[in-house]
């Protein structure tokens, strides 16, 4: 199990944001992406998760390995916490939801409709979804937004357990995740310089 | 994968899920048409098959954008695309859920609304049969349109405009079947054509829908 | 004398309705049975309509109560808006399903009657049309109640809907009569009570009307009690959650 | 306060804003009805006034939930409620924006669609006049319904169900006006009643709408 | 200019969350609310902003003084940054948007449609809206979510300028706002104990 990015470039809305990024992440390791607002962290994570193709370079990953969690948690407001989680567990091949609920401290809220959760409780539910996927590669976009200190610690524990179980994780954040052992990568040096450099869209190039 | 179907059905049945939306629209149409057109039973009887079919079609059309839009907005569609189930399966189940929650209630309600519109007695059986045969095509075609427009900014409008021409053959044969049935004319030709359209779309369109969905998500 | 408003206290209301409800329910059962049995079995057949005329003993009382239920809802909503007595809002809520059932009975019996008399289940006669519209009003009102979580918000919103809806219901009724001028076929066939109906029909008809009124009252009392219990349950659950 | 109106108009005109949605629906209906009902000119001419009015009404009905729902979802409505403009003004401007973006295009398109439906020649003027007079009432009544259901879980369905009975008088007088105009009968009574309903709703309903909006926001 | 809460209790979904909270905040001062997820910070802020009535107690504030900013920024995705801001400026009585754009470092993005902003850029736009309202009382719910360090500093500067100009601010957050001078209030001690305490719904009480 390994994630390898080779000379990746990616763009959003036709504007190249990141270029020339190569890295390898082995099982049991975590990577934290940092960088100022709008530098392309979300875009890079979507590329890794396979939701958009890279402008150049390759993403090497075993198939069906990624669990992605973004700002939108994919929760259905009218379903209860347990129902939401059970659905995702079933989609990813069944499995019990009780440990995930317990781990994210949601057991008491299991029967509450998702719309009646507070911001932090919603986010915890979004993270519990990761646990039921049983996928080895976690790709997380600002996972600890709205979480209080205790919940951030729960999250860090969950990530550590995931790494210990042979998984790996890539996360973007602006705040402290409580994961000191994770490698940090600042994306600023990989900013795409000009359309010409680092693999701009070759089709558009033909018009320049 | 059945989890997706049960979730969609459950969501539709929950408050706000839109179950009954199509039905309410159908009922509304059946009440408004006589109020607008006037109460003469002969006029109503003449237009009843057409109005009932147009109503069912519009009710389907109007609920299409719920098929993918909600999952798109809350991020579920992204997550489903990275999940270990084929997109062909996802679109088929979505179409099935749409049929069960929207089209099936219409089929069941149609005879009752036929009473309001003075539908001639011999036509009731044909009405139900034609809707039962035709609505699966409406759901599958509609799912294709919804997949084509998911995430687009002008979704609703575009969706109607795209799907409408695709719906026309189904409408024409369906309404024709009921009109002929009402007059006691032979119905085998429209019946066969309607069944053919439905069989063809159900068998082939899911592949097209999955393909466009994949393009849209990227 | 104690003010009637003291029945706005849920406890007082529960206490009073405790002994009132069984009496009303029994009276409703007895009076309705008497009226219907008399009407169905001990009245002569009409010379033109035959025995189908007997459906009038179900049709007219239910139609009457369908309208009265709406009027009661209107009054109860006004009381809620002006004096904010919770019991009155809950009574309005309880009256709606009862009114809906009455409307449905009137529509169904009318349709059953229409089949032999007019040869069709349904015509867009103004009276029938305005009843269908009333049915839709009930449906909307009940649906609005059931989709709001907070009880006070629900009471406020449904009260405004009831007030505005009443105005439009009147307008609709007037519009329906305007719309089919010269077209409708209903009145000429129907019996006019007082003019052509004699006491052999009138007496059981009035008895069934009273019976239906009592049924409605019993349903409203029962419904209000259920609503009050539901509120109490919710309050208890909340209290439990806090501890 | 005029800023609210210009913003709503601009949003409607931007991609995805829903401008033209009602118009597209109206067009679709006018195309589908002859396809479903059959092409006989006399039948079409008889039902044309009613169908054109029902279509306009449905097109308004279907665009109602956009009036407040979008502002509710993105939090603008909360912010507007704490802003220094009266809610009565907000609902009036919202209704006006709905009328301009949805109803006005319908009024302009109606004569064209009348041609598709074989509307008799003398009725065209009355059609436009009746829609011009009646649609403001539809927008104002619809805004009331939208305010009543904003933030509710069963929004769309409930909204149609609540607003439909309120629309009936307008529909009856409007369609009657056109039918009479088509036959050359006197039209002053429905004209006066239609104008009365519109004037009454425009003058009074905004207060009710603001009241229910306030209740819903708390 | 003063904000005074007297023996406030507030509830969400019929469940009392906070009870017995009294406080006074003078012009020029800021208050930061803290507390675990789901303790009622959002609910309290909505009560202060007048969006929901308190269960008991009173909120004393001059009329039309509050500018409220929640998780939802009230942005229209299809309008540009400048258009969004100009709208709110017009609603609050006109005023120039250029200083607000400059202060939140959005001048370069002024013509970008709001839907094409990154998470942090959207949030900056939401904060710029506060500046154009010219309202003295800011009520902010997790204002620095998704902001990078530089933007958090911009925000802190904006709040300081607002306080210096005679305003006041109440904010809920889980992370550091960079406002060391602000008073911090932990809401944990004000948790509503039982329905009977601190002003539960008196009607419900009548049933018990
Ligand atoms: C679905 C169909 C029908 C509906 C919705 C309906 C509705 C009503 C309504 C609203 C009333 C008025 C009650 C009142 O004003 O106190 C009424 C009364 C009455 N209906 Fe019907 N009706 C229907 C069918 C019929 C038919 C088929 C007949 C028989 C020919 C009939 C005969 C009468 C009579 C005799 C009365 C009482 C006398 C009167 O108020 O004029 N109805 N019905
Ligand atoms: N259509 C577009 N045209 C031009 N630029 C765009 C378009 N859409 C997005 N962008 C820009 O692309 C960048 C998006 O980057 P992304 O969302 O990946 O940022 P991020 O690093 O996740 O930022 P944040 O920390 O704020 O979440 C932003 O600078 C945004 O302004
Ligand atoms: N309908 C409901 N029934 C019961 N409890 C509810 C209901 N709706 C919300 N709640 C609870 O009320 C609390 C909401 O609090 P609020 O949103 O104010 O929390 P918060 O302090 O802002 O939390 P966060 O830090 O996560 O944003 C949560 O505990 C939530 O579970
Ligand atoms: Mg981002
Ligand atoms: Mg919160």
Summary keywords:
heteropentamer, A: about 210 residues, alpha/beta, 5-stranded parallel β-sheet, 3-stranded antiparallel β-sheet, 6 helices, globular, C: about 240 residues, mainly alpha, about 0% strand, binds protoporphyrin IX containing FE, binds adenosine-5'-triphosphate, binds magnesium ion
Please explain how this structure is put together.
The complex is a heteropentamer, with 2 copies of chain A (208 residues), 2 copies of chain B (218 residues) and 1 copy of chain C (243 residues). By secondary structure, chain A is an alpha/beta fold. Chain A has helices at 41-48, 81-91, 98-103, 119-133, 149-164, 202-205; strands at residues 2-12, 15-26, 30-34, 56-60, 66-69, 137-141, 168-172, 183-186. Chain A has 6 helices and 8 strands. In chain A, a hairpin with a 2-residue loop joins strand 1 (2-12) and strand 2. Chain B has 218 residues and is mainly alpha-helical. Chain C has a domain at 56-177 and 201-243. Chain C has 7 helices and no strands. Chain C is mainly α and 243 residues long. Chain C is globular, with a radius of gyration of 20 Å. Chains in contact: A-B, A-E, B-C, B-D, C-D, C-E, D-E. The interface between D and E is medium-sized, with 25 and 28 residues. The complex binds protoporphyrin IX containing FE (HEM), adenosine-5'-triphosphate (ATP) (2 copies) and magnesium ion (2 copies). One magnesium ion binds next to helix 1 of chain A.
The number of distinct helices of chain B, counting runs of at least 4 residues, comes to 9
Q: Spans of chain B with pLDDT under 50 lasting ≥5 residues?
A: none
Form type of chain A: globular
Spatial strand arrangement across the major sheet of chain A: 5-6-7-3-8
- Cα gyration radius of chain B (Å): 18 Å
The largest sheet of chain B is: none
Largest binding interface between chains: B-D, 43 and 43 residues
Unreliable residue stretches of chain A:
195-200
- Can you count the helices of chain A? 6
Helix proportion of chain B: over 70%
Shape of chain B: globular
What count of domains describes the coordinates of chain B? 1
List the helices and strands and how they pair.
The complex is a heteropentamer, with two copies of chain A (208 residues), two copies of chain B (218 residues) and one copy of chain C (243 residues).
Chain A: E1 2-12, E2 15-26, E3 30-34, H1 41-48, E4 56-60, E5 66-69, H2 81-91, H3 98-103, H4 119-133, E6 137-141, H5 149-164, E7 168-172, E8 183-186, H6 202-205
Helix pairs in contact in A: 2-4
Chain B: H1 2-13, H2 21-37, H3 41-63, H4 66-73, H5 76-81, H6 87-116, H7 123-149, H8 155-183, H9 188-217
Chain C: H1 10-41, H2 56-83, H3 86-118, H4 126-146, H5 151-179, H6 186-189, H7 199-242
Helix pairs in contact in C: 1-7, 2-3, 2-5, 2-7, 3-4, 3-7, 4-5
The structure holds protoporphyrin IX containing FE (HEM), adenosine-5'-triphosphate (2 copies) and magnesium ion (2 copies).
One adenosine-5'-triphosphate sits between chains A (12-13, 15, 17, 35, 37-43) and E (116-121, 146).
